[in-house]
Amino acid sequence: MEKDGREIMEIVEAFDLTGCAHSAAQLVGCDPKTVRHWVGLRDRGVVVTDAGR
Predict the structure, then answer these.
(1) Cα–Cα distance between 32 and 47 in angstroms, integer?
(2) Taking Cα atoms as reference points, which of 50, 38, 49 lies closest to residue 12?
(3) Which one of 6, 11, 12, 43 is most buried, by most CB atoms within 10 A?
(4) In angstroms, what is the C-alpha Rg of the chain?
(5) Is the full-model pTM beyond 0.90?
(6) Is the pLDDT of residue 53 over 50?
């Protein structure tokens, strides 16, 4: 399932709030792997505005 820009921002913000992929995933209702994926892209400087669109 593709994530839209708003969902991605919520994932990244939840990670910033908690500092933990598992906790962030519980907050936003996704898999911890998804959190690590989007945070990893952000940390590498990839501009994430809309999932692959």
Answers:
(1) 20
(2) 38
(3) 11
(4) 10
(5) no
(6) no
